[in-house]
Amino acid sequence: MCMKISTFFAALLLTATQTFGQTPCSTGRYASNVYSTINTTSNITYGQNNSWSGANTTLKLDFYEPQGDTAATRPLIIWVHGGSFIGGSKLDGDVATWSQEFAKKGYACASIDYRLGFFPIDSANAVKAVVRAVQDLKAAIRFFYKDRATTNTYKIDTNHVFVGGSSAGAITALHVAYLNDPCEIQDYLSAGTIANLGGLEGTSGNPGYSTKVHAVVSGCGALARYSWLEAGDVPLCSVHGTNDGTVKYNRGVVNPGTPLMYLDGSRMLHERACAVGVENTFYTFPNAPHVPYAGSQAYMDTTLNFIRDFLLKQLGCNDTDLQPANDWMETANLYATNYCDGSPVDEVCATSGLAENKEMKLLVYPNPAQNDVQVKWGATLNMSIELYDFAGRRLVQENVVSDGYILKRGNLQVGTYVLKLTDKSGNTLVKKLIFN
Question: Relative to the CA of 142, which of 35, 158, 164, 393 has its CA 20 to 30 Å away?
């Protein structure tokens, strides 16, 4: 009787497991290469749209899955290649490797082509290229939601849809995850231009289906504005080299051969995610160039292990990390920015992945102020004081050992500023300060 009951419950567990797309974490699936052979279905059409020049473009993807997999559903990772939005393909070595390696672990993976090209080479047209890529990635996401709701050819667990990419592909994935309102890019493109492009959802295919993703993986990527990452957003995994000359590790001008525009790199996004409580993990490659994993097996192994650890947590597994996060480098230099409604972003930043120091009770008064401002933190500390204007220029930098500080207004003009305090341990508090 006991054997029969045990067998019954084992079968029930297996059925439930297959229904929800996850075998128990203890089986090793998703944590290790439990499959040795991968089936690849090439050139699946997932949509179509017009290119930057007006030519009709068929959008295709390659689908990777474990050979012999009997699970009813599998988590999906959609990978997006790099190439500065002017080159590259779904067959590029980094995304093809990621697709193969994670399929061996039991995931379903897709590597997509998307519309490339823009001219003239300037910031406005570069933003249009990003929007087109975002639209195409969303069409690919909808393709799999539609398949799940209809033919279920690809057996996707739509509770675990992840997107990721390398370089331009990471930029695309990040904007799919965190750019959710056309007004956020109104500094770059008018509402009419965005509408003419098809909006942020686009018209690349599979209308009416979800574009919801559950986490994002960024290999040397960036956002146009770090403030687009907000409380409640999906988890983020980032890797980046400190000597990246194309997409800057911190904040800087993206330069794929021609300087285009400022972007906020992985260091800024990590700082922002910590500040607003978004789950994130960040690995820094000291002194490494752009996409170092593309040319080095050691970097690739580190990257694969780091992403593996992150995705396991998204699936609810508690396996020991193969590649723990390391210490970030450089200070994330804050700058003032606004939400869509025009209100300033009230920055409260954290460092080293830690929450703000709750022992530092920051008082800033009066605020708004007409003259000097009192800054109190309640205990004698070695404190760095910095003040930035809306253009990101540092106007004040002083170090004190005290329980407070008087910020002299001096010649500071009417406006909004960012006051940043950093203690000896690196804990950071940031406060919006207004002078009338």
Answer: 35
What are the boundaries of each domain within the chain?
Answer: 21-314, 363-435
Q: Please give the full DSSP string across 155-175, using - where no structure is assigned.
A: -EEEEEEEEEEETHHHHHHHH
User: What's the start-to-end Cα distance of the chain, in Å?
Assistant: 81
Structure-token pair, residue 186: 């109104």
- 363-435 sits in which CATH class? mainly beta
Report the candidate in 215, 222, 239 with the shortest Cα–Cα distance to residue 291.
239
Q: Are 300 and 283 in contact (CB under 8 A)?
A: no
What is the tens place of the pLDDT at every residue in 148-180?
Answer: 999 999 999 999 999 999 999 999 999 999 998
- Name the region of 299 (left: φ>0; alpha: ψ -120 to 50; beta: rest): alpha
Q: Which CATH class is domain 21-314?
A: alpha beta
φ, ψ of residue 167 in degrees (nearest 5)? 60, -115
Closest to 133 measured CA to CA, from 121, 116, 150, 120: 116
CA distance 309 to 421: 33
